Amino acid sequence: MSDGLRRDRRGSRDLRDVERRIDDAARAASLPGGCADSDAIVRLVGVSRVYGEGETAVTALVGVDLEIAAGELVAVMGASGSGKSTLLSIAGGLQPPSSGEVIVEGRALSRLDARATARLRRRSLGFVFQDFNLIPTLTAIENVTLPLELDGESARRARRQAQVALDAVGLEAKHDAYPDDLSGGQQQRIAIARAVVGGRRLILADEPTGALDSVTGEAVMRMLRARVDDGAAAILVTHEARHAAWADRIVFLRDGRIVDESRRDSTDALLGGIR
């Protein structure tokens, strides 16, 4: 048998295996109540992402399988261009995979239309970015209330929830301040408050401490860890080992593939010298 034929058959078996796992995941996501038979908040099943076609195609992710449960913080590490941000974007429904499936809170994203996907992002997902992505013409509390009001919450209820979220990140006196009048650390705290307000259960953080000094960065990580300990799930993309040390698991990406994973038996023991 030629090497080429062997590769073709092996590729066909791999494809059938991915398709089988996707079918299993899709069936699980169709159980009564729309919930998967799993405690995972988010599942990626055989996820691949390719940009472009033919000779100019760029492969960002290859066959990624990942589950994250409530109360679990997973750090994703790897060199630039390894697919970290692409993984985060796909997990959050900001872009679709080229193949594979993403399931969030028991809902297969491929089965949702654009409106349902947007509603799921508003209600269940919180994003924290390195550059904060705050609206400069809105005050701190208005930035936090905006996603709630877009989801139909009354202005009064939205403001009350935003006040609680801002107070929880130490911004009791900054409700009416504009982003440009605040420090980088304070702006990132607003972004975290916006990410967790309304009880969102999945937090996606892309280098959230990259623009912050070490002291503020540790404070941000402490807040993220506290939210996870309260029952959320979180994915943290980071280059910093000291920040990855806050995670329950560390996943390593290389050339779009998960090549290694490190599990922590006890986060408290791991962080004994940091906290």
CATH topology: Rossmann fold
CATH superfamily: P-loop containing nucleotide triphosphate hydrolases
SS elements, strand count: 10
| Helical segment count | 9
Q: What is the general shape? A: globular
Average the pLDDT over all residues and give the rounded result. 84
Structure described in brief:
The protein has 275 residues and is of the alpha/beta class. Helices cover 39% and strands 24% of the residues. The strands form two sheets. It has a six-stranded mixed beta sheet with strand order 6-7-8-3-9-10, sandwiched between helices. It has a four-stranded antiparallel beta sheet with strand order 2-1-4-5.
Topology:
Blueprint: H1 3-28, E1 40-51, E2 58-69, E3 73-77, H2 84-91, E4 99-104, E5 107-108, H3 114-124, E6 125-129, H4 140-150, H5 155-168, H6 184-196, E7 202-206, H7 214-229, E8 233-237, H8 241-244, E9 249-254, E10 257-263, H9 267-270
Parallel strand pairs: 3-8, 3-9, 6-7, 7-8
Antiparallel strand pairs: 1-2, 1-4, 4-5, 9-10
